[in-house]
Amino acid sequence: MPKEMNKPWDGRNRGHEDKAYFDHNDRVERPVGRDGRFHVGPIKHHVSFRIHRPSNLISRNLDNDIPMTSNDNMRQMIINQRDRERGGRIRRTVYRGGNNSVPNFKGVQFQGIQGRNFKGDQSNSRMPLPLRESNGYRINIPYGHKYEKDYIINTLLNYIAPKVFIPIMYKKTRTDACFYIDDHKTANALLNCDRKITMSDGFKLRVRVKPEFPNCDIDDEVKERLKQAMAKRYRQDTKALNLSKFHLDSDLCSDYFYALSYPIMMMTVLDIMAEHIPNLEALNLEGNKLQNIERLGILTKKFLKLKILHMGDNKIRDIYQLDAIKDLQLNELKLSGNPVCNKYKSRQNDYVRDVRRRFPRLLFLDGTELPRPIVFDIVDANIPLSQKMFVAVDAKVQEIAKQFLLLYFTVFDSENRQPLLDAYDEHACFSMTISISHNNKLNGYHLENRNLFRINDTTRRQKFLKQGRLPVVSFISEMPRTRHLLSTFTMDISLATQTMMFITITGYVQLDNKEEPIYYFNRTFIIVPKDEGYCIQNEQLHISQLSESQLTKLHQQLNQLENQQVQSEAPALSSVEVTNFVATEPSDEMKQQMTLTLSQQTNMNLEWSLKCLQDTQWNYDNAVSAFILNREQIPSQAFTK
């Protein structure tokens, strides 16, 4: 209990009974009535001298109470706004201190129970609420125009040390100074500097902080500045580009806040890279606050040689975000410092497994060397370039197959197909399939269609399989006359050994009647050595109709080839030596037939057809080969009839 003062307050003599605080007792009993029940009377007014310690959360965010003191003998009191006398009236509060007879209310703050804070002589400033997380913060210094930039920045750095920052876009207005920073913790530290730093002129430095990102406008001037900044970060010897903390580049941060986390900025930088350094092999994107990396998917299309990618210290949260760049053939990847890494307790197992599932060729992850990948688990996604002729073995095999098939199709397109008896083995097999459509015009072939998906009867399957030399050639002879378009042929030799060759021919064929449509065909041959030549042991033929777009494209191709033939002026055909299964010298009648057949096959007149056969010593397949190989050199008069 405080000691009772001898002097009366306000010059009046008042007894103890008028002093309500002398009657106060926190340990009063609850009144009991005659019925034995507790009764609540009117609220008693009281003044408490006990010091209440509020929670840290309240004391941090609410104002401190001001002690009510006099100049000499200080006594501290808190006045409860809800104190009432027994009659329910608000009690008039009296302040008395020392020898003063007049109350001194300077600095007095009346508060309810919510605002109590008893921390002695500490400042009465309110602690600011923490800022929300953002990629950019605007720092405003009211009246900062009076000070030099270096003075303000160094003063702030000294106060928040060991934290550091680089001011971005520092500018002065008529009354203020402002700049931007990129770090959340540093922004909160600067926010707490408000009115706590005394400047050289005696004024307190005011600091205002709020999450804000400046406008990002891209023009030609900005692109030129970006190119200059990127040029100094590129290493020609290693083909590596370092874009780490690109928004803090010394050549940019004085005038721009162009962070790569801003989508339009990222796309602009990637376009500049694709234009000037398409052969980039290493890229560093660390410390750029990247959260959404979907736009990095352009790396898979424009930077095919990229092998090293560093994306540490960003904001990548989930492993599935890497799916946007999983087509990159990376050897080295860095993700440390991203929130996604904190989700994996076992980095060696789960983390490495999930990352390598997307980048199977990866050798280094976060600076750690990984076990070598299993080669057969890696599938190369690159499709080989299409070639008109593919041979898996040497050129000699290609030449043999080429000569054999040229002669085969030459005889096949002639009026007499009986010479093909020498082209088939005694036990040869032949089958044919056709594609079925609603407007199918291949009705002549439909009855012999050996489609195993449609024919379940074993007897019919056996019937449609032609076995033996005579049945095969007889069936071929009954087929309508055809004209194969040799310029559309493709040939693949998938397998070649000493005892057999596996050959696939594709192209277009037209029936002898030019009004008939053109069809697509695919023929597979297995040829084996026989005597001094080769013969067919197995053949499969597939025929299908063309769509309108395919037919239009084919006509354009044929017209282009025809124009090239007419415009070309060159020496006559050269002779080509070749071996085939016809070894005897033809008779005069046979020579005449060969000349006529060659003329029909090549569209050359009889004179040039005869000359071609004579130059090739009446070897028909050599003549056809010579025509194909030297077609562009044949003069236009050779086709005048």
Automatic annotation (TrEMBL):
The keyword Nucleus applies. InterPro entries: Leu-rich_rpt (IPR001611), LRR_dom_sf (IPR032675), NTF2-like_dom_sf (IPR032710), NTF2_dom (IPR002075), Nuclear_transport_factor_2_euk (IPR018222), Nucleotide-bd_a/b_plait_sf (IPR012677), NXF1/2/3/5-like_LRR (IPR057125), NXF_fam (IPR030217). GO terms for cellular component: cytoplasm; nucleoplasm. One of its GO terms (biological process) is poly(A)+ mRNA export from nucleus. SUPFAM superfamilies: L domain-like, NTF2-like, RNA-binding domain, RBD, UBA-like. It holds the Pfam family LRR_NXF1-5. Its main location: nucleus. It is found in: Nucleus, Nucleoplasm. The keyword Nucleus applies. It comes from the Eukaryota. Gene3D superfamilies: 3.10.450.50, 3.30.70.330, DNA helicase RuvA subunit, C-terminal domain (1.10.8.10), Ribonuclease Inhibitor (3.80.10.10). Keywords: Leucine-rich repeat, mRNA transport, Nucleus, Repeat, Transport. One of its GO terms (molecular function) is RNA binding. Belongs to the NXF family. This is NXF1 factor. It comes from Acromyrmex charruanus. The lineage of its organism: Eukaryota, Metazoa, Ecdysozoa, Arthropoda, Hexapoda.
